């Protein structure tokens, strides 16, 4: 049996944007849980950096309040809390001036030889300046790690520029580009399902798979992020990263070993095999939508607080992976805000049996569908056709082999938050679940022409009602090819 907790070496983790939303909601609670599990060595320090001057004691008091809000009561004991708060320091550091950098370098030097990681939980405009100042003040050593969050650019040119500015100070072997979807337990399980079971691999190709559906549906609106979102839209916010990553993991060839670069090599090959979408086919292969106000639920424009905008809060598209394995099997992707439910899944829809031996009176054969549920109720379902039990001759019906992880592995199974896993991977030096530079750029290379083609469309954004499954045209994207989306259910 593999050990559940892999101890890590002593480290200093500096969080830029240490008082921001991500630090409050995800990073500090995630680190606290790892500390609780006994994974953090006693020397480990967490240094929050932000512009405003504040004493470490004041920051610790804030952190205590955040932990009480975002960690459940059962997990919070006073001694554990005190130990964790004791690891926290605060430094005022200004990304836009030379203020505070010497102090940061000095604090890190005082820690002696240990792993050093800088987490940039700040807007992308600060990535370049922070990297440059880390280099200039000597805080970034040749082995220091840097963690960056999306958005990793707005298009290919800006992503290249960001990557170049990071690379001027940090070697690619030490750059961790976070896509938090890769830290989700079931996303990792997709790799186990595919590559640790001999059952699926022979069927995992265009001969047997009719199509793949990847849905990331959200029931919420923009949650106070209207300004960012209106500049960004669903294609950049969700498809360029999360949905394409899910597509890559579903479509990639088995890597030789489960090692960072071997896994990432295979994902890049998938991105490069995506058939281009541009002016000639954008109307047939993509649908974008924007939710309208209905029954007291605010519409997109209310959420964002603008009078007019063509930014999409919904995207559906058909992607073709042009290689030997997938030629002829489309991948349909869909994501949107204010849909019927929060539901993310990957559905592998298999082709029908080649011939039915049953009489028409037996009823229809239900094609096999393998569904990997990412959230909620993480698990795997295989839909099959069985005989309806009881007398009455041969009657067929659909049924599901349903494995919910919570039921199968016991009520006590804890599915950690993606960040909890990813931050510790940074400290361990494991880049498997992080995006490599060429991967991010390959994703933008495919997205940019779609954005450009949309620019040239008039009235391209279709309205949709909140609480539904997106615009009518998204349904047609499938219907006109004799397929249908799976229901969005909570
Ligand atoms: C973020 C997007 O990356 O992912 C958000 O910027 C989105 O718009 C979020 O709501 C969804 O993440 P999750 O983990 O809640 O599915």
Could you provide a short overview of the structure?
It is globular and about 80 Å long. Helices cover 35% and strands 20% of the residues.
Structure, described:
The chain is of the alpha/beta class. Helices cover 35% and strands 20% of the residues. It contains 15 helices and 16 strands. The protein has helices at residues 21-36, 56-70, 78-85, 101-110, 127-136, 156-167, 185-195, 226-251, 260-273, 282-285, 300-304, 405-408, 418-428, 437-455, 472-479, and strands spanning 11-16, 45-50, 88-92, 115-120, 145-148, 175-178, 209-217, 286-291, 314-319, 331-336, 343-350, 369-375, 379-387, 396-404, 434-435, 461-464. The strands form two sheets. A nine-stranded mixed sheet has the order 14-13-12-11-7-10-9-8-16, sandwiched between helices. A seven-stranded mixed sheet has the order 3-2-1-4-5-6-15, sandwiched between helices. Helix 1 packs across helix 2. It is globular and about 80 Å long. The two termini are 35 Å apart. The model has no long low-confidence stretch (mean pLDDT 94). The structure holds 6-O-phosphono-beta-D-glucopyranose. Residues 218, 237 line the site of 6-O-phosphono-beta-D-glucopyranose.
Question: What attributes characterize this protein structure?
Answer:
about 500 residues, alpha/beta, 9-stranded mixed sheet, 7-stranded mixed sheet, about 20% strand, binds 6-O-phosphono-beta-D-glucopyranose
């Amino acid at each position: 049996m593999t050990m559940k907790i892999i101890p890590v070496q002593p480290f200093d983790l500096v969080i830029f944007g240490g008082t921001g939303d991500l630090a409050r909601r995800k990073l500090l609670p995630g680190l606290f849980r790892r500390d609780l599990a006994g994974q953090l060595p006693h020397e480990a320090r967490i240094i929050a950096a932000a512009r405003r001057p504040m004493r470490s004691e004041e920051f610790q008091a804030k952190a205590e309040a955040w932990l009480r809000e975002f960690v459940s009561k059962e997990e919070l004991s006073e001694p554990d809390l005190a130990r964790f708060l004791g690891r926290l320091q605060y430094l005022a550091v200004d990304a836009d001036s030379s203020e505070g950098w010497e102090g940061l370098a000095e604090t890190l030097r005082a820690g002696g030889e240990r792993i050093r990681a800088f987490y940039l939980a700040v807007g992308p405009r600060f990535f370049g300046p922070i990297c440059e100042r880390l280099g200039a003040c000597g805080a970034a050593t040749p082995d220091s790690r840097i963690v960056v969050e999306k958005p990793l650019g707005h298009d290919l040119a800006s992503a290249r520029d960001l990557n170049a500015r990071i690379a001027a100070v940090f070697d690619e072997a030490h750059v961790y580009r976070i896509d938090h979807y890769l830290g989700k337990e079931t996303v990792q399980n997709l790799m186990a399902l595919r590559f640790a079971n001999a059952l699926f691999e022979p069927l995992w190709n265009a001969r047997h798979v009719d199509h793949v559906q990847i849905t990331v549906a959200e029931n919420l609106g923009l949650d106070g992020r209207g300004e960012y979102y209106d500049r960004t839209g669903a294609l950049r916010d969700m498809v360029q990263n999360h949905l394409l990553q899910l597509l890559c993991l579903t479509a990639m060839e088995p890597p030789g070993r489960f090692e960072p670069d071997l896994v990432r090599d295979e994902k890049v090959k998938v991105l490069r095999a995506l058939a281009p979408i541009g002016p000639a086919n954008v109307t047939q292969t993509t649908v974008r939508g924007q939710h309208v106000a209905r029954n007291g639920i605010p519409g997109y424009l209310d959420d964002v607080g603008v009078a007019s905008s063509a930014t999409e809060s919904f995207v559906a598209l058909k992607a073709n992976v042009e290689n030997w394995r997938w030629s002829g099997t489309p991948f349909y992707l869909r994501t949107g805000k204010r849909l019927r439910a929060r539901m993310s899944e990957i559905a592998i829809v298999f082709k029908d049996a080649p011939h039915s031996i049953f009489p028409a009176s037996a009823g229809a054969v239900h094609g096999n569908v393998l569904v990997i549920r990412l959230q909620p109720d993480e698990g795997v379902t295989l839909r099959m056709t069985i005989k309806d039990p009881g007398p009455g001759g041969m009657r067929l019906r659909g049924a599901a082999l349903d494995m919910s992880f919570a039921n199968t592995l016991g009520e006590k199974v804890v599915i950690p938050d993606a960040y909890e896993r990813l931050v510790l991977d940074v400290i361990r030096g494991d880049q498997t679940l992080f995006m490599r530079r060429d991967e991010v750029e390959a994703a933008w290379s495919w997205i940019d022409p779609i954005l450009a083609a949309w620019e040239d469309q008039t009235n391209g954004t279709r309205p949709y009602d909140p609480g539904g499954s997106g615009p009518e045209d998204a349904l047609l994207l499938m219907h006109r090819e004799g397929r249908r989306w799976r229901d969005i259910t909570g």
